[in-house]
């Protein structure tokens, strides 16, 4: 049995949970808050970041969401998520990097800092200017996703892939924190609604942080 060290609003943890759900890989979870990571957790991953997967029986530890995803692609044949031709696989990896890096840095990370860390850890009010800029940048990312969905059945091509999982993980965190304005993004909203209905996604919709509640539409499949 895998043990997943994760944080509920860590988009990279969510990406791996979605991947393991799609591949029907069993695991249990341990919550690791980013502001109070234990010495034991740093021994598992010196970078101090979630997610980390551990199989104690095999003495195997995996860290970094992209490394974990590649591991499962190489070892679990069901539901391949880096699929298709070499060109298709390159496109999937490009989009995963876009969401893991650009979307996270532009949108998810500022929202987490302003609406989670400042409230729970620093006991400070959020900076409205930072929030407005994050939401503005979110519109740009959603515009690009609208274009992709206009031209492809899924973000990277004809089949669902790790690119869709990475995007859904980032968007779900930003949406939980009230940072997504869906007006004018019908294509992406439709794609996201389909994704929210998948069994792998449903557990994410029921989880709540102790003091931070999502907007009413967060758990609704048809937003």
Description:
The chain is an alpha+beta fold and 223 residues long. 54% of the residues lie in helices and 8% in strands. It contains 8 helices and 4 strands, in the order βαβαββαααααα. Strands 2-1-3-4 form a 4-stranded mixed sheet, with helices on one face. β1 (2-6), α1 and β2 form a beta-alpha-beta unit. α1 packs parallel to α3 (65-75), α1 crosses α6 and α4 runs parallel beside α6. The longest helix is centred in the middle third of the chain and has 37 residues, at 86-122. The protein is globular and about 50 Å long.
Would you kindly provide a brief summary of this structure?
The chain has helices at 11-22, 39-44, 65-75, 86-122, 128-151, 162-176, 186-196, 202-206; strands at residues 2-6, 27-31, 52-55, 60-63. It is α+β, with helices and mostly antiparallel strands and 223 residues long. Helix 1 packs parallel to helix 3 (65-75).
Q: What gyration radius follows from the Cα positions, in whole Å?
A: 17 Å
* DSSP helix fraction: 40-55%
- Low-confidence residue ranges: none
Task: Tell me, rounded to a whole number, the average pLDDT.
Answer: 95
Major sheet:
4 strands, mixed
- Let me know the number of strands: 4
């Amino acid at each position: 049995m895998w043990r997943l060290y994760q944080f509920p609003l860590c988009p990279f943890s969510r990406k791996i949970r979605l991947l393991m759900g799609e591949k029907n890989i069993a695991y249990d979870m341990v919550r690791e808050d980013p502001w109070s990571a234990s010495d034991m957790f740093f021994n598992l991953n010196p970078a101090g970041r979630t997610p980390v997967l551990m199989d104690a029986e095999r003495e195997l530890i995996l860290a970094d969401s992209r490394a974990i995803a590649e591991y499962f692609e190489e070892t679990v044949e069901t539901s391949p998520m880096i699929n298709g031709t070499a060109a298709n696989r390159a496109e999937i990896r490009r989009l995963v990097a876009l969401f893991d890096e650009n979307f996270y840095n532009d949108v998810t990370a500022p929202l987490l800092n302003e609406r989670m860390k400042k409230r729970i850890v620093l006991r400070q009010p959020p900076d409205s200017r930072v929030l407005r800029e994050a939401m503005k940048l979110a519109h740009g990312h959603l515009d690009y996703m609208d274009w992709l969905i206009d031209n492809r059945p899924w973000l990277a091509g004809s089949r669902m892939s790790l690119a869709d999982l990475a995007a859904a993980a980032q968007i779900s965190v930003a949406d939980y924190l009230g940072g997504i304005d869906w007006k004018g993004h019908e294509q992406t909203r439709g794609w996201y609604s389909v994704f929210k209905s998948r069994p792998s996604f449903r557990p994410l919709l029921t989880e709540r942080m102790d003091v931070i509640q999502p907007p009413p539409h967060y758990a609704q499949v048809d937003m």
